[in-house]
Backbone:
């Protein structure tokens, strides 16, 4: 069997650039990825990117700036898609970025669309669920939902770049977070330098 695919969900939190970068690494590596955007993610796409956004026919190649042949796109209302079933085997699912709304619904098992169904199935099958929430400050409700998701087996990778690598650009800061997601998915990458490879500067 070849490399198992990845499931990537993009929700309507600020930081759609994290999804852009993750999908570009997957696409450039030719890794099969099953991708779903929430409706709100398209709002954020419009707000944060200069790439034309057509929710009825999103252009994934334009979105991630790479040939998107290995990316398969689903609408969030396609509840019968194969990623909604536990019989679909994958190496893990990442929700990047993740809203407090999606986080709460997944943590409480009250999801409705394909994103939340796929995430809940990932948890029940004991596969890896990586969630990249973006919000600040955090309410007690959000903190409790993150705890519940962690207790259920999910991994919270908050969009929170480190500075020991001396980032020079916004892209460096995006890459720091995306690198952690790729590490958890056990996908080789060359984003950023790891601690120990970093040369401290005076
Ligand atoms: C430009 C923009 C930025 C937003 N940023 C965030 C955010 O950082 N975190 C968050 O939890 N919600 C954010 N929201 C609100 C969510 O999009 C909203 O709660 C939405 O209903 C979430 O739907 P979804 O979870 O299905 O994507 C933002 C909305 C817009 C339009």
Residues:
């Amino acid at each position: 069997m070849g490399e198992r695919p990845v499931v990537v969900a993009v929700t309507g939190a600020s930081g759609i650039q994290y999804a852009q970068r993750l999908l570009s690494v997957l696409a450039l590596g030719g890794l099969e990825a099953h991708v779903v955007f929430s409706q709100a993610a398209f709002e954020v796409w419009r707000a944060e990117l200069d790439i034309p956004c057509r929710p009825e026919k999103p252009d994934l190649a334009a979105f991630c700036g790479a040939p998107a042949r290995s990316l398969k796109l689903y609408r969030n209302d396609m509840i019968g898609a194969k990623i909604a079933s536990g019989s679909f085997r994958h190496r893990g699912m990442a929700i990047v970025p993740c809203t407090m709304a999606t986080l709460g619904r997944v943590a409480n098992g009250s999801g409705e669309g394909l994103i939340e169904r796929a995430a809940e199935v990932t948890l029940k099958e004991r596969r890896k669920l990586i969630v990249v929430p973006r919000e600040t400050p955090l309410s007690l409700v959000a903190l409790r939902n993150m705890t519940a998701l962690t207790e259920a087996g999910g991994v919270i990778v908050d969009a929170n770049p480190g500075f020991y690598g001396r980032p020079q650009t916004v892209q460096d800061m995006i890459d720091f977070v995306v690198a952690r997601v790729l590490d958890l998915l056990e996908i080789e990458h060359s984003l950023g330098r790891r601690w120990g490879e970093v040369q401290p500067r005076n």
Summary: The chain has a mean pLDDT of 95. The two ends are 49 Å apart (CA to CA).
